[in-house]
Amino acid sequence: MGQRIADFAVEEIESSLGQIAEVTAARVVASPDGGILEIHVLSTTLKSPKQLVRDIESTLMAGFNIAVDHKKISIAQLGGDTSAASDEAPVPGRDEQGARPRIHAINASVSGLYSDAAVTLEVGGELYDGRASAPSSQTGRQRIIAQATLNAVSMVTNGSHTFALEDVAIIRLGREEVAVSCVTIVSPLGEQSFTGSAMVRQNEKDSIVRATLDAINRRMGFLTTA
Questions:
Q1: Ordered structural domains, the chain, with CATH
Q2: Taking the mean position of all CA atoms in its chain, how far away is CA 191?
Q3: Is the CB of residue 119 less than 8 Å from the CB of residue 105?
Q4: For 117, which DSSP code?
């Protein structure tokens, strides 16, 4: 017999569903006896609703041993032409070369007790600048790079979504250093947190920007269509 939703925190299940590619938000409605009444999902148009439903069913079964009737799953897709969910060519400006931001420039400076950072992203040939400042501690210098990145992304989305930097750090895994970033995206359906990482190859600043973008890049197809 499968598990009931009451055996898990609803937030845990919603977070797991939010990790499915192209899903931007998920809400689970539970019955008093611990069953699933409804699942509401907001997604991009890069994957068909039928495939998303299958992915949701598989995630619930594999991760929580919960079987759910597909009729209880509601998919809302926001964005452009839904034909992008087929196997045909993607909608212009929504592929990985267009919708996702590229790093154009990273600048950081220290003035007295404060550090300043500026990150410029290129999206579809357009440049978007983000800036941030903070006291010049080691942690502060790392955070302003990530915050400037998110501020640039906010320019891309015209402020339609709010990005909150939860934390950023450089950690050591084995013999390698890795930049790790945790970002919360706030939308009309609520908030979800995502993590991203990037190996430290060129320098810490570059890796922090890449880790921050990695946390939200799968959502950019949706975020850039507002």
A1: 5-85 (3.30.300.30), 102-223 (3.30.160.270)
A2: 11
A3: yes
A4: E
DSSP state for residue 90 in the 8-state scheme = P
**Of the candidates 95, 93, 101, 98, which has an alpha carbon nearest to the alpha carbon of residue 46?**
95
CA distance 76 to 69: 17
Most confident of the ranges 16-25, 69-78, 122-131, 213-222: 122-131
Q: What is the pLDDT of residue 129?
A: 95
What's residue 119's pLDDT? Answer: 94
Tokens representing 184 are: 């919360």
Q: Where are the beta strands (DSSP E) in the chain?
A: 23-30, 36-43, 73-77, 102-111, 114-123, 126-135, 162-173, 176-187, 190-199
Residues in the chain: 226
| In contact, 50 and 97? CB cutoff 8 Å | no
**Residue whose tokens read 């070369």:** 97
- Tokens 């709010």, located at residue: 162
What distance in Å separates the CA atoms of residue 6 and residue 208, rounded to the nearest whole number?
38
* Structure token pair of residue 171: 């950690």
